[in-house]
UniProtKB/TrEMBL annotation:
It comes from the Bacteria. Gene3D superfamilies: P-loop containing nucleotide triphosphate hydrolases, Tandem AAA-ATPase domain. The keyword Isomerase does not apply. Pfam families: DEAD, Helicase_C. The lineage of its organism: Bacteria, Bacillati, Actinomycetota, Actinomycetes, Micromonosporales. GO terms for molecular function: helicase activity. Keywords: ATP-binding, Helicase, Hydrolase, Nucleotide-binding. Residues 425-447 are annotated as: Disordered. It comes from Pilimelia columellifera subsp. columellifera. Residues 113-292 form the Helicase ATP-binding domain. The keyword Nucleotide-binding applies. This is Helicase-related protein. Residues 471-632 form the Helicase C-terminal domain.
Length: 946
C-alpha cells in the first residue's frame, strides 16, 4: 500500500522531529494539523501539532556508528527493551501491547470468541476468582482499539463502580466517568441544552439501580454506547412468579432486554452464577444474547453447540494449568466449624423472644396481611438476636420494613428482602441494615411495651460475657498466630461495629482492626480497605455482605470467618471467594463458620443448607447452584419453628418433620451430578487450546516472552550496578545505586532491595518479571533511551546499537540485524475503515556478503541472541567488522523491505484468522502494508573462536 501524503513531506507512518523528540505521523493527520505518536509509544501518548506554528522537520532514523560499538550481547538486551516498550504492535490483537496487565492464556479464550462475532454477544460465566473483569476488559479494549466500538458503558452495582473505574484505568487505559446518584447532579450541570450524559461522556460506569427506573432508563437506552458490559448479571434476570422476584429485578431485566433489542450492540454479560438453579431465569438470561437461545433444546448436541458460541464457563480445574502456564490459585480451602453456647441470660432472652414471636404469628385477628407481616418480623427478630445483642436491640426498636404492606405478596417481597439472603435478587447495598420487628402503629400498644422491655434486656446483655464474642476472639487469635489476616463477616451493621469494638480491645497492640459496612459509601469502603493495606503488621477486617460480592481482597487477607451464618450457601461462597481467588499469596486459605449450638436457628440453617453445600463443594472441587426449592424449604422449616409447640431444645429437623427437606437433598445431588467438571458443556467448546496456543505464541514473539523479559531485566540491572541476588522465583536488586534517571522512574514506595518474581501472586510493593510491570517497563525504557543517545556515558548504557563478539555459537562470521518495522493497517470498523500505524521488531541474521547473503532460520537467530563470549576481539579489528556490517545493512535495504512485505502478508493472515467468522467484509477490508525503509536499530557481528 502506498502511503498517502498528509502534508508535503510528511506521509502517514513517516518520522518527524518536533518538541525535542521523534514521532510517527498517524493517518488522522491533515495538511495543517499533524496527529503524532512518539516513537515506541501508545495512543495515550498522542499529540497534535500545527506545523505552521511549531517546528516540525522530517526525521530519518540514523544507522549505528562504529564509534559506539560494544559487546554483541547487547543485541538481546536492546531487542527485548524495544519489545517491552511497544504500545502499538501490528498483530491482530490491537490492544495487548498497550495494556498494563498480561492476560493469562485461558483469558484469551473469551477474547478469541468475541473476535469471531459481529456484534459481540457473550456470557462469561467463569468461576469466582478466575478473572471475569479482566476477560471483559480485554474484549472491550480490543473493540475500542480496533474501531469496532467508540463508546463503552459498564453497568454494575454502585458498590463495584469505583473498582471498575480503577481496573479499566490501571489495566486497560480506559478512563470512564462514574454515573451514580452522588455524581449525576454535578455531571448534568455541565450539559448543553438537549444533551444527554451519555452523549457527553464517551465511557461511563453506571449504577444499575440508578439507571433502571423508567425516567432514567429511557434516556440511557436512547443514548446508550454501542458496547455494554453488565457485571453480576444474575441480579438482572427473574422469572414470573418466582419467590423473591422483586420489582427492581424486573426493572433491570427490562433495561437489558431493551439494550439487547438493538442488533448492532455489543453486549458482554458476566456472572459467576449464570444458572442459579432456576431454569426460566437462565433462559431469560441467554435469550439476551440471541432470542433463539431462550427456546433452544439444550439437551441436544446442536443446542449445546449453539449456546457454546455465546457462553464460556470454566472451573478452576479447567485452567489451573492451561497450555504451558500454571495459574496459582490457592491450593486448598481449609474449612471448619466452631460452635458456642449462649449464656443462661442470653438463652432466657431467646426463649422469651421465641414465645413472643409465636404469639405474633398465631394472631389472625386483624387479617392475613398483618399476620404475614408479623411472621417476617418474627424471623427478623430471631435472626438479629442470633447475630448480636446490639443488632437485636436495634431490631426491637425499629419499624419493620414491610409494616405498611397492603397485600400478602407485598409483605412477602419486602420480608424476603429484609430477612433472607437473596443473592440472585436485589443487590447487597442495603442488606446489612437492621431489619426491624415493630409492626404496630400505636406507641402505647401492649406489643410495643413488650418490645421495649425485650430491647432493654438485649442492651443489658451487651455488657455481660458474650460466648459468641469469646468464640470469635479465640478463632481470630489462632488465625493471626498461624500467619493469616482474617475477614470477619457479619449480617448487620450493628453487629459488625459491635464485633469491631470488641476485637479492637481484645487483640494485642500492633494488630489493626477496622470495619467496612453499608454505612459507608462505596468510595469510603475502598479508601478504608486501602488504608488497611498501608499499615504495618497484622490486620483484621470486620465486614458485612456489602463486601461479599465483586470486591477483591486477596492481596490483604487470607481467611474468612463467618460470624453470622448466611441463609443462602451462595452468600457463603461469595464471602470466601473474596480471598480464595487468583492473586492470593497464600497457598492455603481458611474459612471458619461460627454457629450457636443452642440458639434454635443456626443448627437448622446449617443442616438444611450450608453443610450440604460444603460437602458437595469438597467432593467436586466446585460450588453448584442452590436448587430452586431451597428458599421455600427454608421458609417451611422456619414456619414450623414458629408454629411448633416444642421446647427450643427439641427443635431439630427430625422433630419438625418437614418433608421437603429430603427432596431438597435429592435435587441438590442431582444438580451436583450434572455439574461435575468432566460433564461441563461450555468450558472451551468453541475455541480449541491449539488455536489459543498459536495466537499466544505470536503475541509472545512480537512482545517478548516471560523468559526473555526475566533475562533482560536481570542482565540490565546487573550492568547498572544493582547487584541482583537470585531467589527461588526471581531475584532481588538494590536500586539505590542505579542511575538517577532510572531510579526516579521506578514506582515510589517499592521494597528495598526490590524483589522481582517470575510467578504470581506478587506481594504489594514488589515487582513481576513481565512487560506490563511498571518497574520492568522503566528498566526497558531506560535501556532503549540510553542506547539511542550516544552522549550518555558508556558506563550507564547497558546496550549498544552495534557490537562484535567472538563465540563458539558460530563457525563462520555471522551478522545479526535488529529491525524496527512500521506497518499501515486498514481494519473494518463500525464507522468505516480504520487506518492505524503500528510497530513491530524482528531479528534477522546472515552469513556471507551483502551481495550473496545466506539467511539463518528463526531457531538459529534465537540461538545467537543467547550466545556467550569466548574470546577477545582486537578494537581495531572490531571497528572494521562493524563498518563492513553497517555497509552491508545499507546494501540490503531492498532485501529487508521485501522481507517486511512478507511479514505484512503474514500479519494480514493472522488478522483474518482470528476473525474467521467475519466473512467477506473482513477479508476485503483488512490490509497490512510495510513502511519503507525498514529501521535498522542494531548491527551485531559474531565471530568464530578459531
Amino acid at each position: 500500500m502506498t502511503s498517502t501524503l498528509t502534508r508535503p513531506g510528511f506521509a502517514a507512518g513517516s518520522l518527524v522531529h518536533s518538541r525535542g523528540r521523534d514521532w510517527v505521523v498517524l493517518p488522522d493527520s491533515a495538511d495543517d494539523f499533524l496527529v503524532l505518536r512518539p516513537l515506541g509509544g501508545g495512543d495515550t501518548d498522542n499529540a497534535g501539532v500545527f506545523p505552521h506554528l511549531e517546528n516540525v522537520a522530517a526525521a530519518t532514523f540514523p544507522p549505528p556508528t562504529p564509534e559506539d560499538a560494544g559487546n554483541a550481547s547487547g543485541a538481546a538486551l536492546l531487542r527485548t527493551a524495544l519489545q517491552v516498550g511497544f504500545r502499538a504492535s501490528a498483530g491482530p490483537f490491537r490492544s495487548l501491547a498497550s495494556l498494563a496487565v498480561e492476560p493469562r492464556p485461558y483469558q484469551l479464550v473469551p477474547l478469541l470468541m468475541a473476535m469471531r462475532q459481529d456484534p459481540v454477544r457473550l456470557l462469561i460465566g467463569d468461576d469466582v476468582g478466575i478473572g471475569k473483569t479482566v476477560e471483559a476488559g480485554l474484549i472491550a479494549a480490543e473493540l475500542l482499539a480496533a474501531g469496532d466500538a467508540g463508546r463503552l458503558a459498564v453497568l454494575c452495582a454502585p458498590s463495584l463502580a469505583a473498582q471498575w473505574a480503577q481496573e479499566l484505568s490501571d489495566k486497560f487505559g480506559i478512563e470512564a466517568t462514574l454515573v451514580l446518584p452522588g455524581t449525576v447532579t454535578r455531571l448534568e450541570r455541565d450539559l448543553l441544552l438537549g444533551e444527554s450524559l451519555f452523549d457527553r461522556h464517551r465511557h461511563v460506569i453506571v449504577s444499575l439501580d440508578f439507571i433502571k427506573s423508567t425516567r432514567r432508563r429511557d434516556d440511557f437506552v436512547r443514548s446508550c454506547p454501542e458496547l455494554v458490559i453488565v457485571d453480576e448479571v444474575h441480579t438482572c434476570v427473574a422469572q414470573d412468579g418466582a419467590a423473591g422476584a422483586g420489582k427492581g429485578r424486573h426493572q433491570r431485566y427490562e433495561l437489558l432486554r431493551q439494550l439487547a433489542a438493538d442488533p448492532t450492540r455489543h453486549l458482554i454479560l458476566a456472572t459467576a452464577t449464570p444458572h442459579s438453579g432456576k431454569e426460566e431465569g437462565f433462559r431469560n438470561l441467554i435469550g439476551l444474547l440471541h432470542p433463539a437461545l431462550a427456546e433452544a433444546d439444550l439437551s441436544t448436541t446442536a443446542g449445546r453447540e449453539e449456546l457454546a458460541r455465546y457462553f464460556v464457563q470454566r472451573r478452576r480445574a479447567h485452567i489451573r494449568r492451561y497450555l504451558d502456564t500454571d495459574t496459582p490459585f490457592p491450593r486448598d480451602r481449609r474449612s471448619s466449624e466452631v460452635n458456642y453456647r449462649l449464656s443462661p441470660p442470653h438463652r432466657q432472652l431467646l426463649d422469651d423472644v421465641l414465645d413472643y414471636a409465636r404469639e405474633q404469628v398465631r394472631d389472625a385477628a386483624d387479617g392475613s396481611v398483618r399476620q404475614r407481616v408479623r411472621w417476617w418480623s418474627a424471623l427478623a427478630l430471631l435472626r438479629a438476636l442470633a447475630s448480636s445483642p446490639r443488632a437485636a436491640a436495634a431490631t426491637l426498636r425499629t419499624r419493620a420494613i414491610n409494616a405498611a404492606a397492603a397485600t400478602t405478596a407485598e409483605a412477602d417481597e419486602l420480608g424476603r428482602t429484609a430477612v433472607l439472603d437473596l443473592t440472585d435478587d436485589e443487590t447487597t447495598e442495603s442488606a446489612d441494615a437492621t431489619p426491624g420487628a415493630d409492626v404496630e402503629t400505636a406507641p402505647a400498644d401492649s406489643h410495643a411495651g413488650r418490645l421495649r422491655d425485650l430491647a432493654a434486656r438485649a442492651d443489658a446483655l451487651a455488657g455481660d460475657p458474650d460466648a459468641k464474642l469469646a468464640a470469635v476472639t479465640k478463632v481470630v487469635k489462632k488465625l493471626l498466630a498461624d500467619g493469616y489476616d482474617p475477614i470477619v463477616f457479619c449480617r448487620f451493621i450493628d453487629t459488625a461495629e459491635y464485633v469491631r469494638d470488641h476485637l479492637d480491645n481484645a487483640l494485642k497492640r500492633g494488630i489493626t482492626v477496622d470495619a467496612v459496612t453499608g454505612a459507608l459509601t462505596p468510595n469510603e469502603r475502598v479508601d478504608r480497605i486501602a488504608a488497611l493495606g498501608d499499615v504495618g503488621g497484622r490486620r483484621v477486617l470486620v465486614a458485612t455482605d456489602c463486601l461479599s460480592e465483586g470486591v477483591n481482597l486477596q492481596s490483604l487477607f487470607q481467611a474468612v470467618v463467618h460470624y453470622d451464618l448466611a441463609w443462602n450457601p451462595t452468600r457463603h461462597e461469595q464471602r470466601e471467594g473474596r480471598v480464595d481467588r487468583f492473586g492470593q499469596v497464600s497457598s492455603e486459605v481458611r474459612a471458619v463458620t461460627l454457629y450457636g449450638a443452642n440458639n434454635i436457628v443456626d443448627p437448622i440453617v446449617l443442616e438444611v443448607l450450608l453443610r450440604k453445600h460444603e460437602q458437595i463443594r469438597k467432593t467436586l472441587g466446585v460450588s453448584v447452584p442452590v436448587p430452586e426449592r431451597a428458599e421455600s424449604v427454608l421458609e417451611a422449616v422456619l414456619d414450623k419453628v414458629l408454629h411448633a409447640d416444642l421446647a427450643p431444645e427439641q427443635l431439630t429437623l427430625a422433630d419438625l418433620g418437614v418433608p421437603g427437606v429430603d427432596q431438597l437433598t435429592l435435587d441438590w445431588q442431582s444438580t451436583a451430578d450434572k455439574e461435575r467438571p468432566e460433564n461441563t458443556k461450555y468450558a472451551q467448546v468453541g475455541i480449541k487450546p491449539a488455536e489459543v496456543a498459536r495466537e499466544l505464541a505470536a503475541v509472545r514473539a512480537a512482545l517478548g516472552s516471560v523468559g526473555d523479559v526475566a533475562a533482560f531485566t536481570r542482565e540490565a540491572l546487573d550492568a547498572l550496578g544493582a547487584r541482583p541476588v537470585d531467589t527461588a522465583d526471581g531475584f532481588t536488586a538494590h536500586t539505590g545505586g542505579l542511575p538517577v534517571g532510572l531510579r526516579d522512574a521506578l514506582t515510589p514506595g517499592h521494597r528495598e532491595p526490590l524483589p522481582f518474581h517470575r510467578d504470581l501472586p506478587i506481594p504489594r510493593h514488589e515487582a513481576r518479571l513481565d512487560r506490563t510491570d511498571p518497574q520492568v517497563a522503566a528498566v526497558a525504557r531506560y535501556v532503549l533511551d540510553t542506547a539511542l543517545d550516544p552522549t550518555t556515558p558508556a558506563a550507564l548504557r547497558p546496550a549498544r546499537r552495534c557490537g562484535v563478539m567472538r563465540t563458539g555459537a558460530v563457525d563462520r562470521r555471522t551478522t545479526l540485524l535488529l529491525l524496527r518495522h512500521r506497518f499501515h493497517l486498514t481494519l473494518p470498523g463500525r464507522q468505516g475503515e480504520k487506518r492505524i500505524v503500528a510497530e513491530d521488531a524482528t531479528t534477522v541474521a546472515f552469513t556471507g556478503t551483502a551481495a550473496k547473503p545466506s539467511w539463518l532460520d528463526d531457531d538459529a537467530v534465537a540461538a545467537l541472541l543467547s550466545a556467550t563470549p569466548a574470546g577477545n576481539v582486537d578494537p581495531g579489528g572490531a571497528r572494521d567488522f562493524i563498518t563492513t556490517a553497517i555497509d552491508a545493512a545499507e546494501a540490503l535495504a531492498p532485501e529487508l523491505a521485501a522481507r517486511a512485505d512478507d511479514l505484512a502478508e503474514q500479519l494480514r493472515d493472522a488478522h483474518l484468522r482470528v476473525r474467521e467468522s467475519a466473512g467477506q467484509r473482513a477479508r476485503r477490508q483488512i490490509q497490512v502494508a510495510a513502511q519503507r525503509p525498514v529501521d535498522v536499530l542494531g548491527v551485531y557481528v559474531f565471530l568464530p573462536t578459531a
